[in-house]
Amino acid sequence: MTRRWTHRATGVTLAGLVAFTGVGCSQGSSGPSGTGSKAASVASQASAAVSSLASEASGALASASAEARRKLDGIKGGVDVKGDVKLGNVTTDGEGRAEVRLTPDNTTDSTKSFAVQVNFTDPGGNLLDTAVVTVSDVPAGKNGTATARSNRKLSGDVRAEVARAVRY
């Protein structure tokens, strides 16, 4: 049985771009007085709004990571086995979400389960999303398989890494 815990991170999507065309910065009589300063004020407000949204998204990702850590820390008697989990190539599903196949290797002599946190990152290592996947009842000496999926659409060069894996 495979169970997936997911943590939604507030995505920041800038659906529009504020464009200032024909602002009329000339000193002549063709434009109203103060147009340039009004445009600068609007641009400043837009910049502040974008900064606020980016800050909220960053906070949401930090919160999602903290929630994943809390869930993994809550597993009693678990053993850190990050090196026993292999990841495949990142692909995109039909909904635009990144996904990656993971394979935990049960190196013990009894059936075990795994909880694996997969971080989706950009090429610079910046966190884009995180997911926790449980792979239950992997037989002794065998591999289990599961698929980790991002919680939202991710575009560009998305990479995946095992942030943490617990065998229990």
Describe this protein's structure.
The protein is an alpha+beta fold. The protein has a domain at 2-8 and 71-167: Immunoglobulin-like (Sandwich), CATH 2.60.40. The chain is 23% helix and 35% strand. It has one helix and nine strands. It has one helix spanning 35-73; strands spanning 2-6, 79-80, 85-87, 91-92, 97-104, 112-121, 127-138, 146-153, 159-167. The strands form two sheets. The chain has a five-stranded antiparallel sheet with strand order 1-7-6-9-2, with helices on one face. Strand 6 (112-121) and strand 7 (127-138) form a beta hairpin. The longest helix is centred in the N-terminal third of the chain and has 39 residues, at 35-73. The chain is globular and about 40 Å long. The model is unreliable at 2-31 and 49-54 (pLDDT under 50).
Largest sheet: 5 strands, antiparallel
Mean pLDDT value: 76
Q: At the first level of CATH, what is the class of the domain at 2-8 and 71-167? A: Mainly Beta
Beta-strand segment tally: 9
Oligomeric state of this protein = single chain
User: Counting H and I runs of at least 4 residues, what is the number of helices?
Assistant: 1
Radius of gyration over C-alpha positions, nearest whole angstrom: 23 Å
Distance between the termini: 15 Å
Q: What class would the helix/strand composition place it in?
A: alpha+beta
CATH-derived topology of the domain at 2-8 and 71-167: Immunoglobulin-like
CATH architecture of the domain at 2-8 and 71-167: Sandwich
Order of helices and strands: EHEEEEEEEE
Portion of residues in helices?
A: 10-25%
Low-pLDDT stretches are 2-31, 49-54
Q: Give the amount of beta strand, in percent.
A: 35-45%
Q: Rough shape?
A: globular
Give, in spatial order, the strands making up the sheet with the most strands.
1-7-6-9-2
